[in-house]
């Protein structure tokens, strides 16, 4: 392994993750602001917005399917192929969204094409994080795996910040310009990131661990035969993403629609928390390389479970100063203890034969469950004082995720080649023959 390869793998993971989540978040913003009028004008304004937001959710339905398919490809044919494929697929789908004809031009074909492209985005996202995490983990120095894998999640935060920043001037355009050509610009802009990411990823070497691994003909079968408990453990632990969906969706709606706070300050809470997370994620990942994955991850879970109470309370009393401080502490710091560590914690549960499949399937199912958290807490109540029930629900999820992590093996001192009870190494010529065949 060359000294520069871990940095190249981390950079490739960062830029790919930034693109994936830039694309995902500009789609969500466009769905809320534009797509109801552009692709569903025959409906009432409220129905059009609901239909547009439904196309956003379609991407999450495709993720579990993508996890099985791309997990198989990554464990059968290599991490590099998945990383290049997911980057090009996401870039292609996003650019094409910007080129779509409107409902006024081609009728019902326009929203149909929009849904198809959204499905492609979901398939791509399912393999991106698992592929990037596997590549960076297997290239990383033994004693710094958490630090290097954390760049995937730093890229996620950067993508959210970039998506918010680029839509601010676009949303300020005159209504006619926004609905005709303005909304297309953020989607076309993703092509620049794709070119840079493609150049970087094409220059990556396949990981030495994968090259020495006996390739399974059906990795998913091996995964569920040998690592079913770890897959279940990842699914349960990954539901901690409910903190993110409740923070970004429920808390925003509660503050603006129920309490009557201004939308702009609430959006800035998220932006500033993401900026803080850019620094906190690698720092806390570095800590996990010294003290272990489980202590940092579990502490992050429990801290989120505690902080959600004063954060929602600060919203309920309308204190902007408190909600800024507590929001940044919750999402920028405590949640970064989770984001900075889970790529290593989850990835190190599996051997190289099934690592990409195990991470992809486990996380995407867990994330899909977390995606329903805002709907669950909305059912708890929508009154000004119902925040307490929401906080209790969120804290319970945090405790369950912490318990799932507590049952995992501590792996920060285990050599990369021995993670997950790895199979004996085989000659590279045998692996090459299996891959080519």
Automatic annotation (TrEMBL):
Q: Which organism is it from?
A: Amycolatopsis plumensis
Membrane topology of the entry: Multi-pass membrane protein
Report the principal subcellular site: membrane
Q: Name one Pfam family in it.
A: MFS_1
Which residue ranges does UniProt annotate as crossing the membrane? 21-40, 46-70, 82-103, 181-200, 234-255, 267-288, 295-313, 319-338, 359-381, 387-406
Please give the PANTHER family that the UniProt record associates with this protein: SHIKIMATE TRANSPORTER (PTHR43045:SF1)
Q: Which residues form the Major facilitator superfamily (MFS) profile domain?
A: 9-413
Q: What is this protein called?
A: MFS transporter
